[in-house]
Amino acid sequence: IFANLFPAACTGAHERTFLAVKPDGVQRRLVGEIVRRFERKGFKRPDPSAGLRGAAA
Fold first, then answer.
1. Separation between Cα atoms, residue 50 and residue 25, nearest integer Å
2. pLDDT digits (tens, 9 = 90+) for 30-46
3. I need a labelling partner for 20 at 20 to 30 A (CA). Which of 27, 31, 37, 54 fits?
4. DSSP the chain
5. CA dist., res. 15 & res. 41, Å (int)
6. pLDDT band per the 50, 70, 90 thresholds, residue 2
7. What's the rounded Cα separation, in Å, for the pair 24 and 29?
8. Average pLDDT in the 13-20 region?
9. What is the C-alpha to C-alpha distance for residues 23 and 8, in angstroms, rounded to an integer?
């Protein structure tokens, strides 16, 4: 039923994954390696300025 009303919700077109690195991972300088592992799995990083487009300056 919902597939006809909300096709994007069923295809996963708007799904996002939140990645958080704990302070010890930052301290150990593992952020780059963690991001690389996610990218190897097919995850893509969003455009950093994408969140600023709708923000008031």
1. 26
2. 999 999 999 999 888 87
3. 54
4. -HHHH-HHHHHTTT--------HHHHHTT-HHHHHHHHHHTT--PPPTTGGGTTS--
5. 15
6. low
7. 8
8. 80
9. 35
Query: How many Å apart are CA 41 and CA 37, to the nearest integer?
Result: 7
Half-sphere exposure of 21 (CA within 13 A, CB side): 15
Backbone angles phi, psi at 11, to 5 degrees: -90, -15
- Which token pair is 47? 């455009």
Q: Are 25 and 34 in contact (CB under 8 A)?
A: yes
Place of tokens 């990218």: 39
